[in-house]
Amino acid sequence: MRLSHPSAPFQGIPAEDVFFAANDQFVQMGYSYIILNMQEDLYPERPLQMYIDIQAQSTARNILLGALLGRSEQLRAHYPQLKGRIYTEISPAQFDLVTFYNQNGFAAGDAREEHSFQLPLGSAQPPMGCEFASVPLQTPQDQHAFLARLNRYRLSPISHDFLLMQMQQPYFLALGFYRAGHPVAEIMMTGGSPDTAALVMLYVQRDMRRRGVGRSLLVAACDLMRQRGVTSALTQGFSGNQAQAGLLRSLGATRRRVISLLPGLNLG
Fold first, then answer.
1. Which residues of 45-58 are buried (b: 16+ CB within 10 A; e: fewer)?
2. Mind listing the pLDDT tens digit for each residue in 34-67?
3. CATH topology for 120-230?
4. Is residue 124 scored above 80 in pLDDT?
5. CATH class given for the domain over 2-87
6. In whole angstroms, what is the distance from residue 45 CA to residue 48 CA?
């Protein structure tokens, strides 16, 4: 089996982070890549997040995984003081990949899950010195700035096309708490019918957490949704993210399904 790098960036990924595998007859057997993603807000206890993906025949997976682990050590050497993890994301139905990663020491300690919850009731008071307002989305610059703030707290980014599509939905809203024009917390909800809305994203700036700010903003958004006939919502969360899991428990959310598994190796 032979390994090589592409001669140029592959799907926007630097060539040194991509590996091709070929057999001794130079027939390509698959490829893999690694993406370093700093997540100090989403996973503060393990901010160094390294996503790997292997798309290959089973005979090439081990050599490609070995190459990725070697590259991960090189990347980690730039941040020796940080804890992190190497992880991938696979469907629970991909039994061969589940077995492959388990056999190579990856633990299934995290998963992307879908939850449903009834829209919460309560009073929504903005934090002291803050005002409650719609997110400005009139211009492409406004839209990209909003996405940049949301994606800072996500493993998988929301695209501009997705935002534009959701802005056309009848139950779209984007709201936030702002202090002197600067966002303290923001939320995005959407939906095409009053039956069930979707909570796409909710974030709170780090220095304002553990004060009920996120729940207060959610209550305010849900109150507006309820006035339009919505009574329940769906959302996605990561079981390994303590803040997300705690909010879902406080809402009495029910897990509907496991969307994907995130097998991982902890670093440090």
1. ebbbbbbbbbebee
2. 999 998 877 888 999 999 999 999 999 999 999 9
3. Aminopeptidase (3.40.630)
4. no
5. alpha beta
6. 9
